[in-house]
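Supplementary notes for students who missed Thursday's class. We covered one full example, reproduced here. Read the sequence, then the structure, then the short commentary at the end.
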Amino acid sequence: MEPTSVLVVGAGGAIGTALVDRLVPDHQAGRIRLVATARRPESARRLRERGIEVRHLDLDEAETGGLGAVLPVFDGAERVFLLTGYDVRMLAQSKAAVDAARAAGAAHVVHVGVNAAPDTTIVHFAWHQLVEAYLERSGLGHTHLRPSAFMQTLGLGVAEPGVLRHWVGDGRPSWVDVADIAAVAAAVLRDPAAHAGQAYELAAESASLHEVAALLGEVTGRPWRYEPAEPEEFYRRMTAAGGDPVYLACVRNVFERTRNGTLTDPPVTGHIEQVTGRPATTLRAFVQRHRELFDTGEALSRAR
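Structure (token representation):
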């Protein structure tokens, strides 16, 4: 009997890479047949070096070439992990991926969205919710993953040794380790029937940046302080680096509204532990595990 085919769309990103790490042992043991998509040659090369079948996928090609331009990538896939780019194109890209998965005979799609209130007015949060709604009406089995702010982004706020900068003022965002998102996704992909129709809000804890800076001081043994920064600074910096202005304006709005108190994250749930069977990664555990992000110049180079 052939193992179940699992297609990972977005395998070159942070979540996709962590998910591949989780699923490679299942692939090597013959429990699943792992297939990854990649758009860039360097991503494809790294995946092939791990003994994984790699298929080139650029979902934008569906716009100019029709669904047939991307459909072969989904051939034989029974379960699909779907994570698209962070700009408005995610709407068309995700629709094309869902349509291709359905046309190829897939049974289940695990989609990564965002942790937001059902009646959110944040534009890019609404994009994710529209994708979820389309997936739900597709007739495919589905599971929604809704992560909060990634702990990994804290390293980008290291302006100088001992100084943590961020753009949410005194707000208290909810945080999740990317590795926990991948662990939940892997568990669902291994047994989708147990998670069909579910939506999992993925957050380990809420904490202000003042609290994070204090935690950094405790773990690293040297003083840290938090310096609030203007959301407009973030927008200028990221658009100058080539980021999509429409998407980044949405992120700027999230920072501004978190700072002024008109936007708060949904309550932290126990979904990570519920699905994986082990506790979610706390901020303390994350900092202890990734001290290099805060102890060395690596964080400074990433921030620039």
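Commentary. The radius of gyration is 19 Å. The first helix runs from residue 14 to 28. If anything here is unclear, bring it to office hours.
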